[in-house]
Amino acid sequence: MVPETEFSFKTGEFIELTLDGIGEAPFTPSSSPFVKDRFEVTIMKAGYVTGLMHELPVGEVLGVRGPFGRGYPVEEFFGKEVLILGGGCGLAPIRSLLYTLIEYKDKIKKVILAYGSKSPQDCIYKPLFSYLNSIDNFEAYRTVDETTDDWDESVGVATVLLDKVKVDIPNAIAVVCGPPVMMKHGTFKLLDMGFSEKDIYLSMEKNMSCGLGKCGHCMMGEYFVCKDGPVFTYDEIKDQPDIW
Q1: Is 82 helix (H, G, I), strand (E, B) or coil?
Q2: Span 192-210, average pLDDT
Q3: Which residue, 49, 71, 101, 195, has fewest beta-carbon neighbours within 10 Å?
Q4: How far apart are CA 155 and CA 55, in angstroms?
């Protein structure tokens, strides 16, 4: 997307993308925050508005509100290893975080991406993995639930990759983004590995409608996900109801 004026966001923040007269939907940009003259969002056809967005011709004009919320505190990752667990379309916001960490690669000890999709065909951003593995101190791994004859990587849910990675856990943080069931079991697996609750960052997906903490559709206990999140540490939200 090409904005009329320079557009800035921090990785992990989200925007509301508007179809004039139709409606809007929240998306976390999947491009680099260091690029100001254009940005990318990844849209899965999941409802009425996103279905219409898939039918738009090139050059269509859309509205943008935002950015909103609280993204990743990247400066707190400096000097540490970063383990990212992703699943499905969760790779879209993770892609923006990865581009940010690449910009700061001299300040990060190591970045490991462990990503799972239903099948090889469902893996988005396929070229991203070979690109990451070409960068010093970056590692990227994939797994699928349903394999094909030509698949030679891991098989199983995303959390199986956590048994294969080598992480200096006392000096590492973890990021989890993806379907709720994956985030739940991934978080519990990270806790079993020895990660502390404050070092696990979760990108929560709720019904973020207004983006201003007013409508209440995204409330998660005492928090408005649109205003207080969508990025939280597990320590912050573990006692809130229905976080998964």
Answers
A1: strand
A2: 94
A3: 49
A4: 34
